[in-house]
Design a protein that fits this description.
By secondary structure, this protein is α/β, with parallel strands linked by helices. The chain is built from 18 helices and 22 strands. The protein has three domains: about 120 residues, P-loop containing nucleotide triphosphate hydrolases (Rossmann fold), CATH 3.40.50.300; about 190 residues, P-loop containing nucleotide triphosphate hydrolases (Rossmann fold); about 70 residues, no CATH class.
Length: about 525
């Protein structure tokens, strides 16, 4: 299966016959080689085995079968620390940082420079800061104070700190698992520049991503996993994106989706003048029963903050949220002072951070599904395991969650299946309004289409869906209308028949241009008054 372009070169790392079985096999008979100075794209649907293979190479998981060699020596790391000592590093989706320590301390946690000739446990703070600045400069973090607590940074900057941490010291193999999922365009460019530097130094990279345009940009070869087996290893430029997708899912996926016949009814949710400081400023819109309403905009435009205001997770300064009490009735204002109020009124929020805010990763599917539905599975304050498992099994079947059953630990599931667990929890409550914040971030194309199909089914039941997404093509594919946020304001509302990508992008920049014009006018007036 593997291309012969590198046959004459020694492999930095090779795996042969690698397999892994949990409740059922998740990897079987995988054979791959990594070569110095190249990036290998590793892709496949969620649940295909990408992360499991990476964790085996990175020393986090022991294989059930197979062998590995690093350079020309047997390689069987018993831990991540042992793998790192041998030069095999991994940047995971779940960040390995301590939020209560500074950036510098996180970067050099296991090798803090000590002060004094006798080194009585004192940390050389000056040297620590200097070393941290040098490491941070590699990934474009020069503007951040090394003494800043990691918990005070945004998720994108935290991701870059994690990448910088793994570039310190000897690095022979670097695995990047969905490294750009939380990064801005500028941070992505900086990461790709660093990848090119690493390749020039002879580092072998494994780049895991569902963003096929990224794979084409950074990788020389691509390896495709499907259902735990390696189905193709080929030169990156020998396959088109459509061919890679077909290999991933085992079937062709078009750029159109049939969401079924829907009867879009009267307004079910109405938002008027919703405001919180400058992050959300006088936003108004309505969503009808059976409608999928998209919210587009640039990072920082206020999209997530708008969802949190509707859900009561953040206090509003002004504005109202109204709901229709019965189908066809006019929406009337409701009081939502907390998420508890929102849930009681039938509003659900599927957060963009499913791992940090949406799931209890060490707990089974059953516990996660019942988390928002305790009343339906408990008797006299005690959870009835039989009822809990039955509720979870119903959602597993309805959502087509790939698992061994209600007892499987959620942290063992793929990202797409974890997202289905979050959605299944809310469906078990029969919520009428569903707020989706980046529902397909970090999941593969096959799982995306499963989520789209689910959204269509929910809309056909007469629910109102609001979908926030950074992927404009995704919104144009599934939505009936799209509202565009820009600098905290909703600068445009577009019907499906009337939108174009250019018009949507223009609206996304409109608020920032208006703000710049206003600031320029203020500066001009102030300058005139001083002259």
């Amino acid at each position: 299966m593997e291309s012969t372009a590198h046959d004459a070169l020694p492999a930095v790392l090779s795996v042969t016959g690698i397999g892994k079985t949990y409740a059922e096999p998740v990897l079987a008979d995988v054979a791959l080689s990594l070569f110095a100075g190249e990036a290998l794209a590793l892709t496949g649907e969620n649940g295909a085995g990408k992360s499991t293979l990476s964790k085996i190479v990175g020393g986090l998981v022991a294989p059930s079968a197979g062998t590995m060699r690093l350079a020309d020596a047997p390689y069987a790391p018993a831990s991540r620390t042992e793998a790192e000592a041998l030069g095999v590093r991994m940047v995971m989706q779940e960040l390995n940082l301590l939020p209560t320590l500074s950036v510098a301390e996180n970067l050099f946690l296991n090798r803090l420079p000590q002060a004094g000739a006798l080194r009585f446990g004192w940390i050389d703070r000056r040297r620590l800061r200097e070393d941290a600045r040098a490491a941070m400069a590699q990934v474009g973090l020069e503007a951040i104070d090394p003494d800043t607590l990691v918990g005070e940074l945004g998720i994108g900057h935290q991701q870059m700190v994690e990448i910088a941490r793994n570039l310190i010291g000897d690095c022979r193999v670097l695995i990047l698992d969905e490294p750009t999922a939380m990064l801005t365009a500028r941070e992505v460019d900086l990461l790709f520049e660093q990848i090119e530097r690493l390749k020039s130094r002879g580092v072998a990279l494994v780049y895991i991503s569902h963003r096929l345009e990224e794979l084409a940009r950074v990788a020389e070869r691509v390896a495709v996993l499907r259902d735990g087996r390696l189905v193709k290893v080929e030169a990156m430029n020998a396959l088109t994106s459509d061919q890679i997708v077909t290999l991933m899912v085992g079937r062709e996926l078009g750029e159109r989706i049939d969401l079924g016949v829907r009867n879009i009814g009267a307004p079910l949710l109405k938002v008027e003048g919703l405001t919180r400081g400058t992050v959300v400023n006088d936003v108004s819109f309505e969503v009808r029963a059976g409608e999928i309403f998209g919210v587009s905009g640039l990072i920082g435009a206020g999209r997530t903050e708008l969802m949190r205001l509707i859900f009561g997770a953040d206090p509003k300064d002004s504005g109202t949220v109204s709901l229709a009490a019965t189908p066809g009735a006019a929406p009337t204002p409701v009081q939502i002072a907390s998420p508890t109020d929102a849930v009681r009124l039938g509003i659900a929020l599927i957060t963009e951070d499913r791992k940090g805010e949406g799931l209890l990763l060490p707990q089974p599917i059953a516990a996660n599904v019942s988390l928002g539905n305790i009343g339906s599975v408990a008797r006299h304050g005690v959870v009835d395991a039989k009822r809990e498992n039955a509720l979870a099994q119903k959602q597993i079947e309805a959502m087509r969650i790939r698992s061994s059953g209600p007892g499987q630990i959620v942290g063992e599931l793929s990202g797409g299946n974890q997202q289905k667990v979050v959605i299944g929890r809310w469906l078990a409550r029969d919520c009428r309004v569903l707020l989706f914040d980046e529902p397909t971030r970090g999941i593969d194309v096959g799982a995306k289409f499963d989520i789209y199909g689910l959204m269509g089914a929910l809309a056909r039941e007469g629910r109102a869906l609001v979908v926030v997404s950074s992927d404009l093509r995704e919104l144009m594919l599934i939505c009936d209308r799209i509202g565009v946020m820009s600098a905290g304001r909703m600068t445009g509302l577009f019907e499906r028949a009337g939108w174009t990508q250019d018009a949507l992008l223009a609206a996304a920049f409109a608020g920032y241009r208006a703000r710049e014009t206003l600031l320029h006018a203020v500066d001009t007036n102030e300058a005139g008054s001083l002259s």
